Amino acid sequence: MPHTPIHIIGGGLAGSEAAWQVAEAGLAVVLHEMRPVRQTEAHKTDGLAELVCSNSFRSDDAGTNAVGLLHEEMRRAQSLIMAAGDRHKLPAGGALAVDRDLFSADVTRQLEGHPLISIERGEVAGLPPAEWDSVIIATGPLTSPPLSAAIQQLTGEGELAFFDAIAPIVHLDSIDASITWRQSRYDKAGPGGTGADYINCPMSREQYEAFIDALLAGDKTSFKEWEASTPYFDGCLPIEVMAERGRETLRFGPMKPVGLSNPHATTNGPGERLHAVVQLRQDNALGTLWNMVGFQTKLKHAEQVRVLRMIPGLENAEFARLGGLHRNTFLNSPKLLDGSLRLKAEPRLRFAGQITGCEGYVESAAIGLLAGRAAATERLRLAWVAPPATTAFGALLGHITGGHISIDDGPREGPRSFQPMNVNFGLFPELEAPSHDAQGRKIKGKERGAARKRALSARALADLDRWLAAPRQAAAE
Ligand SMILES: Cc1cc2nc3c(=O)[nH]c(=O)nc-3n(C[C@H](O)[C@H](O)[C@H](O)COP(=O)(O)OP(=O)(O)OC[C@H]3O[C@@H](n4cnc5c(N)ncnc54)[C@H](O)[C@@H]3O)c2cc1C
Q: Ligand 1 pocket, 143 CB below 6 A?
C-alpha cells in the first residue's frame, strides 16, 4: 500500500529542504505554500526558498567557522538548499553569497519536478485537519496570523513575537568610485571570490563622530506599546541601537576598519590608517545592487536617506530598498518539542526552521533537513537517531530541543530566556585545544583558538560521516 503523504506547511528555506529530504527517502509529500495567494510583509515573490533580506549564507569556511561547518554537513547530507546555493554563488570574499532570484528559481524547479512532491498554493489558516497524520510546520518568522493563533492556543504559550531590522540596498551606479574601493577583508578570496569583493567606504574620525551624532539624533520608527519591550536578537541590532550602546560600538562591529587599506590618496596619502569603514556586498548576479553589510536600521525612510548619504562615497546614493522592521515568531521549543522536533502535546505535528528558535537561512534549512529526515524515518517505522551533539546539526538541534538550560517555567514578567540563535562553537561539547601542530611545534596564543576550532570541525565531520553511514534500525513498537 502506498504511504499516505507527509504534509509540509511553508515553502521557505526549512520547508523546501524538508520536502526534498522526505521525497528523497522515497515518500510522498504535499508542500503547502500560501504565496502568492497570500503574501507576508517581507516576501516579494511566489518563489520557494525566497531570501527576504541579505543574500549571504555567511562564512563558507568549514575549518574554523561554525556556519561554514554547517554548510559542509548539509552538503554531505545531500541538502537541496546548499546544492542550489553552490550553483548560484556570487563573489563575496570568505562568505557564500548567492543570486537570490536564480537560487529561488532553482529550488522551485527542483521541487516542482520531483515525482513525489506536489505543491499546493494556499494558506493553512488554522490547525491542520486531523487526517494529516504527519505534518511539518515550517511557516517561519512571519507565520500567518490565523495559524499562529491556532498554534498559540494549542501550546498555551504567550505571544512570541519581536522585531528585527533589515539593511538597505544601494544601486551601484550611484556609488562614488573615486572615494570607495574594492577589497575583501584581509584580501580573503573565499568560494568564487577574488579578494576584492566588497565596496568599502572610508571614514575619518571627524566623519565617524558626525555620523554617530546623526544616528543618535535620527527620527526612529516608533513602536507600538507592546512592541517596545520586546528584545532584539543580538546578531541583528539596528545601527542606531548599536550607537546608543556606545559611540565606539559600531567601530568594533559592522564598521570595523581591520584588514582593509584605502588605495586612494587621502590627507595622509594612500594606505593611511582607517578610522571606520562601511562595507557593501554584491546582492544580485548582474552586480547592479549592493547590500550595506550589518546596516539594519529602523530610522524613518527620509531620515535613512539623509543619514546614510553622510557616508563618504554614498553622498548621491540611490536606494533600491531601505531598512525596515520585521516580526519574528518562535516557539519556546526546549519546553514544547521533543528530540525529533515533534510537539509533545500533539506528536503528529513537527516544527522546522526559524519558528523553532534557530536564526538564519542556513540554520533554518538545516533544521528543515533534520525534520524531514525525522518525519521520513518515522513513516518508514525506523528508529530516529539524532545527529551526535558534536556535529553542527546536533549542536543546533540541542539548542532547540534541550541544550538550553535556564528555561523559565513559572509565570514570566520579563522576556523568556530561550532566544533564537545562530549556530556557533559555544553550542558544541568542549574539546581540549591541541597544544602542538602536526609537525610537533608548540601552538601559541591566538593560534590555539583557531586550532581548537579546527579540531572541533574535524571531530564534527568524522562523527557526521559515521551518523550518515549508520544503518537504520526498526523502531520499537
Ligand atoms: C525581514 C526579514 C529579514 C531577515 N533577514 C535575514 C538575513 O539577512 N539573513 C538570514 O540568514 N536570515 C534572515 N532572516 C531570517 C529568515 O527569515 C530566516 O532565516 C529564514 O528565511 C527562515 O526560514 P523558514 O523556512 O523558517 O521561514 P521562511 O523562509 O520565512 O518560510 C516560511 C514560509 O511559510 C509560508 N507561510 C507562512 N504561513 C503560512 C501558512 N499559514 N500557510 C502556508 N504557508 C505559510 C511563508 O509564505 C513562507 O514562504 C530574516 C527574516 C525576516 C522576516
A: yes
